[in-house]
Amino acid sequence: MSQATLLSGVLAPVITPFKADLSPDVERYVKHCKWLLANGCSGLAIFGTNSEANSLSMDERRMLLDALLAAGVPASRLMPGTGCCALTDSVALTRYAVEQGVAGALMLPPFFYKGVSDEGLYRNFAEIAQRVGDSRLKIYLYHIPPMTAVPFSLALVERLLKDYPGTVVGMKDSGGDWKNMEAMLKAFPGFQFFPGSEEFLLPAMRLGAVGTITATANIGPAAIDRLFRNWQSAEADAMQEEITDFRRAITRFPQIPALKHTTAIYTDHPQWAVTRPPLVSLSAEQGQALAAELKGRGFDMPGIRG
Amino acid sequence: MSQATLLSGVLAPVITPFKADLSPDVERYVKHCKWLLANGCSGLAIFGTNSEANSLSMDERRMLLDALLAAGVPASRLMPGTGCCALTDSVALTRYAVEQGVAGALMLPPFFYKGVSDEGLYRNFAEIAQRVGDSRLKIYLYHIPPMTAVPFSLALVERLLKDYPGTVVGMKDSGGDWKNMEAMLKAFPGFQFFPGSEEFLLPAMRLGAVGTITATANIGPAAIDRLFRNWQSAEADAMQEEITDFRRAITRFPQIPALKHTTAIYTDHPQWAVTRPPLVSLSAEQGQALAAELKGRGFDMPGIRG
Fold it and tell me: Rounded mean pLDDT of A151-176?
């Protein structure tokens, strides 16, 4: 696989709609994915943190991937999350995704045990790479210590890049720590690096990032995509300021419920606001405040209704 | 189900042996479980932290449970870990275990998301209780913030006990914080409380605990069981001191690898020392130091060989 086929640009960690019985609403899921691809997303990081993927069983994840492909979403636009706590799950889900032709796999470290060694994490990824044993496999390491408390160190990334070149290819960094992003970008030229928030898009692009995988792309991908495509323009700093301001307005609310609530409003489908436990939907008060905030900004999700 | 049939005493969170390909070694697993029951364990908390259960797939866990039952281990002695990140997994595994007749289910909270609300955790357990919908279900809440970073608050426990009486029945507290254990024991008389370390066995028994579910029971259940059975005797404090001293000697080493290494030595089966990633076995130096420590103490696992 040539570098040219690797994903870049704005990827949404796609939120997952649930029916009243909390089963995934496949039809609305497919619709949302297609809307995202038509409105600024280059790709879909399905089964991420914002997707409540760890609240879904393996079968549910496979079913949703199947549904997207059956509906004509190209596998080449997909970067599913396939990193699980159990090695056998990670191998099975990654293999399945690769066999469907996905562009990459965004992999959490096994996240139950804390204080694990770089050696143990290395072995996890080495086993996965070897067991999947497919040259199409492109692993993006998912660094999100606020949830996992299991970080990827520079030394671990260096070792994986050295031992699995062409397989371990990139990272999503959702740590929120610019110093870490800067260090990763400077240490590994050619690393397919995505900051996990558009707040860092411009500075990261200037150091060689290839885009961003960001929660807010679920509701407003176009503005982020505009900065991605024009990061070298004179207007880039102003664009960055604008999207950062929007993100901060949204993330005053609990993030995943806020994205789902927003989608519920603009699709006119209240059920979209539902989360699986342990997450809870916004309260009525929060929902009203968010709606007012969005309205005040003249926010829209064009074409999402119906 | 009467109180009389609830598990009490010393339960081991059974360590899981792996073959060279890292698949579970069923034969040695069954043998270890039988040894534990014959040597001081009242029950087996299979699929716990020390079992590397989160490093096993759902199918692997079901398979191991099936193997124990097929080998004649009574379901009434089992308290499998069935709490997963995904609601659908928790429901499926808990239902399966209850259908096999297990004495209880030791349930982690969903542990991927951090900073979740009591309301979200409540809904998780409420959904599980309702969906499993079986009066035989006995849930023991598994409080282990050092791994999950998702604690059970007193208010949450109170609400669950009130709304699901006879279903939510107890707790394993592996937080290592005596103040929390004391608060739980004092707040909820009749709560089936197990400290997650024998270090707290005597003080917890004095406040109404029903036993302990502890890692070191994997290698030395007899001494812990002796204190459990004689906690009101004049020798109880001396017994507590002795088992605490042993535990501290062992937990100077990485805990799960040390338990497996010890079992490897006394079964004369080096493969027992193997862990799944992200855990790693003891280094040669650590292994030698542990072996010397055990030998110096005249430690033995009587009847474990062969």
Answer: 98
